[in-house]
Amino acid sequence: MDDVVKRLLRIPASEVTPEELYLNRREFLRAAGIAATGLVVGPALGNAFAQGDASDAADVASELSGLDRTDEALTSFESVTTYNNFYEFGVGKGDPARNAHTLVTRPWTVTIDGEVERPGAYDLDDLLANVTIEERVYRLRCVEAWSMVIPWQGFMLRDLIARVEPTSRARYVAFTTLHDPDQMPGQRRRILDWPYVEGLRMDEAMHPLTILATGLYGRDLPNQNGAPLRLVVPWKYGFKSIKSIVRISFVEDQPPNTWNLMAPHEYGFYANVNPEVDHPRWSQATERRIGEFRRRDTLPFNGYGEAVADLYAAMDLRRNF
User: Fold this and answer.
1) Dihedral of the CA atoms 289, 295, 300, 303 (nearest 10)?
2) pLDDT tens track for 32-45
3) pTM summary value
4) Nearest alpha carbon to residue 140 among 216, 192, 244
5) Distance of alpha carbon 75 from alpha carbon 81, whole angstroms
6) In terms of DSSP H, where are the helices of 157-290?
7) Which residues contact 129 (CB under 8 A, 6 or more apart)?
8) Which residue segments constitute the domains of the chain, with CATH numbers given?
9) Is the Cβ–Cβ distance between 118 and 112 less than 8 Å?
10) What's the CA gap between 95 and 89, in Å, rounded?
């Protein structure tokens, strides 16, 4: 990785894990049969955020059936961190890496509200203090027909949901990005209706593939990738994976999502990857993996259909795009 990229990321050179060493670590862990997971740290919010037991981990592994692991080549750290969509820092793919150093990610407060028994304004570090940070390798595909394979660190959204205890009226989970034009210079322009908002149906949010990411490539999440907390929903187009989250709301009615509000004929609420439904301005039947030149066929649900197709068994996915 060159010095320019390191400066953009604001990470001292001495602290950057070279990509080749990271890949070698993964190969060692795979050969040794060791899961690439982080540590469970001590409690900060008491019993409300207590850990599950070993049977929980076994159940999750069974549900995922290995879909959170892949032998596909990882997209390079440089590409993942310098080719981004994050309009809060500019509309060009390189703008977030150049501009996101203005974002201050600590302290960081996440407000949890709506139809939930344990609402409140939580310090992010307190929220993270009793979750298992796991490594998961997911494909993330953008609507401009390009994709990446990224080793994320994060935890299942459903763990957080279970611990804040939604009421029976909570049918959707809504998310809101930080709105602070001083820190996010792109918000000074009316490119979108700020702040950025997104939402999931409750069963989508509870799926074990859905994670709140806190890092990638073994590092804390870079600002341009959505630090300090972003959503990752790997079977949906990238715009669903909202970045720099400051509010999580449990609601009864389908919440708005930014791109659907801006262009409802182009972007729907569900945003499931569907090669049979073209974007009005381009085909979505093929994609280009960043780092490759040859295009490849787009897979339904981005290749995760085995795990998630049942969520939409009764839906017309052409109409509910």
Assistant:
1) -40
2) 443 333 322 222 33
3) 0.87
4) 216
5) 10
6) 157-164, 202-205, 258-262
7) 41, 42, 43, 44, 45, 49
8) 3-312 (3.90.420.10)
9) yes
10) 6
CA distance 278 to 268: 12
CA 265, CA 255: separation in Å to the nearest integer? 17
Residues 53, 215: Cα–Cα separation, whole Å: 24
What is residue 115's three-state secondary structure? coil
Judged by DSSP in three states, 89 sits in helix
Distance CA 160, CA 146 (A): 31
| Residue among 259, 289, 283, 282 at smallest CA distance from 271 | 259
CA atoms within 13 A on the CB side of 43: 8
Asked if 86 contacts 100 with a C-beta cutoff of 8 angstroms, the reply is: yes
Place of tokens 């509870």: 206
pLDDT value at position 130?
A: 79
Residue 109 CA to residue 126 CA, distance in Å, equals 10
CA distance linking residue 14 with residue 107, whole number of Å: 24
Please provide the size of the chain in residues. 321
Q: What CA–CA distance (Å, rounded) separates 296 from 281? A: 19
Quick: pLDDT tens for 44-99.
333 444 445 444 677 777 777 788 888 899 999 999 999 999 999 999 999 999 99
